[in-house]
Amino acid sequence: MSPKVKRNFKTKPIITRNLVQLLGFGALSGITLLTMFLIFLLVGVIIVRGASAITFDFIFGYPSNGMKAGGIWPAIVGTIYLILGSAIFSVPLGIGASIYLSEYAPDNRLTQIIRIAIITLAGIPSVVYGLFGLGLFVLYMNMGTSILAGSLTLAIMNLPVIISTTEEAMRSVPQAFRVVSISLGATHWQTIRRIILPQALPGMITGVILGLERAAGETAPILFTAAAFYLPRLPHSPFDQTMALPYHLYVISTQVPGMPQEIQYGTAFVLLVLVLGMNLAATVIRSRARARRQW
Amino acid sequence: MDKILIEHLFLNYSDGTESLRDINLGIPAYAITVLFGPAGGGKSTLLRTINRLNDLADVTAVSGRVMLADQAGAVVDVLDHHLDVIALRRRVGMVFARPIVLPLSIRGNLTYSLEVAGERDKTRLEAAVERSLTQAALWDEVKDRLDDPAVALSGGQQQRLCLARSLVLEPEVILLDEPTSGLDPISTTKVEATLQELKKRYTIVLVPHSVQQAARTADYAAFFLQGELVEFSPGKTIFTAPRDKRTEDYVEGRFG
User: Fold this and answer.
1) A177/B102 touch (CB, cutoff 8 Å), yes or no
2) I need a surface site. Which of A186, B62, B88, B101 has the fewest CB within 10 A?
3) pLDDT per residue over A178-201, tens digit each?
4) CATH architecture of residue range(s) A72-245
5) Are B51 and A183 an interchain contact pair (Cβ–Cβ within 8 Å)?
């Protein structure tokens, strides 16, 4: 630069700017590392102390001796039933609602209220869902403490997550595809079914899994609606109570004195593997779809 | 005979960006009619009125008549609220500024319009694929890889695929909205040459991406300025002896 050019703005010396850059970068990566450290600590402790408890009999056995011995098979099966049960109710309803919101709903006062309701629903503490389920399903609709009542309660809790993630997946399909499809003589529904849904499907599956994963791990919604304290057999029907992993973990950690730590960590380990496994599946589906995506 | 007759067409978007004011225009059959002029003149809006694609946009008010005639001379008003718009869009094909291939195979892009109309016959679908690709001068380049994803094609090939796609239903009119704006000169030449062939069988309405392209391709040309139709003349005269001063200024590059 020619020395005659007069610059009428001030810049900090390059050393200061580099220093600021270095400090900022250091602080941010430090925070990231701290977060990672906490996660690894949490997961690591459970893996190290829980993995040794995992035997065939622990997974597939029934609890005995006041849960101080034996396995957790009824709790595993109960949790799977609750995940599937909540999926039956929340997936069709959630996907239907998100198709309506993304493709059909006009932008008016009613739609705004629906959206606010969904956001509010997502922010409600899970114990409130539990009490709501107790009032509506267990008592008023006379379902009793049952897999059915628990599934419905979990389904309501899942709905906002499923609706917002699947709606987002559909909205991310480019508008140009819709315009082209319509210009080729397709109806609105044909456009949704043949172009938008197939393109949005991986994102929708990811959203559904993330919603159901929440159902797998929550204790409060099933506390009053589905969970049995101790039921050393498999449930017979949807109207039966069931054991479930998160509630079982709560029970053996706080309600039973003299509980062997091995069983506690083993149960936590199984729950963690289940939830992380679902999370991993969602991530894999999403990243594979992104790699294959044609837009 | 005019294929499309536009009478007293007024149109407003709700945000007031671009509108059409009292457009009167007859678009002749089996010829290339070019709608040209600076951006914001209403050319694309007029194009999208003809196949009612503006139904998807935020249009507040439309008035006037857009009459579309078929081979037998029967006429429908495109703006009629009771009109079957699906049937209209099967008669009026469209190609967009960017090559927008659907996320399907090359074949899937072409058979889409037939499939949504309920065609299941494999032989007829295959025949339509070959015919449309041949008409768009793309058959030889893609015939061995019809099941590849359409996005695997080059930009120029994609746009010719979009052109072929608009021909599958054998429409009466093809609307092209700056179809070569993103293409290299060689691809542009191919598309323009194809249009000269296609006008023997179709009525073509083209929004060109430059005055030069307008001059190269137009049988008839309409000059649009800020929502008004300034001049409509045969292509031979409008670029050499425009009647209106504003057309002359634009064609000679004094503004734009």
Assistant:
1) yes
2) B62
3) 999 999 999 999 999 999 999 999
4) Orthogonal Bundle (1.10)
5) yes
